[in-house]
Amino acid sequence: MDFYERAKMICENIPRGRVATYGQIALLCGKPRNARQVGYALNKGRLGDVPAYRVVSGSGVLSGAAAFETYDMQKILLEAEGVEVKRTKKGWKTDLKRFGWRTTLEEAESFQEMFQKKNI
DNA sequence: GTTCTGACGAACA
DNA sequence: GTGTTCGCCAGAA
Predict the structure, then answer these.
(1) Methylated-DNA-[protein]-cysteine S-methyltransferase DNA binding domain location, by residue (predicted)?
(2) Distance in Å, residue A63 CA to nucleotide C3 C1'
(3) Which end of chain A is more exposed for a tag (fewer CB within 10 A), N or C?
(4) What is the pLDDT of residues A2-50, one digit of tens each?
(5) Taking the C1' atom of C9, which residue's CA lies nearest?
(6) Do residues A21 and A96 make contact, with C-beta atoms less than 8 angstroms apart?
(7) CA–CA separation, A75 vs A26, rounded Å?
(8) Which positions in strand C are less than 7 Å from the protein's CB atoms?
């Protein structure tokens, strides 16, 4: 099983106008403790051109040190999709209550099935 | 083999 | 609400 392939697929399946957390992606990958690996993988660019701007840290804060040209690039992209991004002391922040990607049980299961099928 | 590092997270104070 | 500490696990050196 390839953790990176899974992460990539999940990133690509984050709905427009929503954001997901690293922990969430790790969870969907079947590795609940691997939130760091998600970020690490994305940073390394091993996932290719995935919409990584839809991935934020657990509290909804844009991690910032993303693989984007400028720091506020992520913010621009998110706002273009209708996600509100606020300025806080910690940096740019999204409201997970409203814009967080709520994964249903069905979605989670379909991911697992997909992984099984593709043997990744 | 070991050690360090890291787009992080949860549990604390 | 904030700041700190600790745990996590895959890569890199």
Answers:
(1) 2-83
(2) 18
(3) N
(4) 888 898 899 889 999 999 999 999 999 989 989 988 888 887 666 667 7
(5) A34
(6) yes
(7) 23
(8) 2-3, 7-12
Rounded CA separation A120/A101 (Å): 23
Domains of chain A: 3-118 (1.10.10.10)
Beta bridge partners of A94: A85
Check whether residue A97 has its CB closer than 7 Å to nucleic acid strand C: no
**Helix intervals (H) in chain A:** 3-12, 22-28, 35-44, 73-80, 96-99, 105-118
Please tell me the predicted confidence (pLDDT) of residue A84: 93
pLDDT in tens, A25-34: 999 998 998 9
Place of tokens 């999709």: A81
* Whether the predicted pLDDT of A95 surpasses 90: yes
Which residue in the block uniquely carries the two structure tokens 């991004």?
Answer: A85
Residue closest to A103 by CA, chosen among A92, A112, A95, A116 = A112
Between CA A25 and C1' C6 the distance (Å) reads 22
Say what the pLDDT of residue A98 is. 93
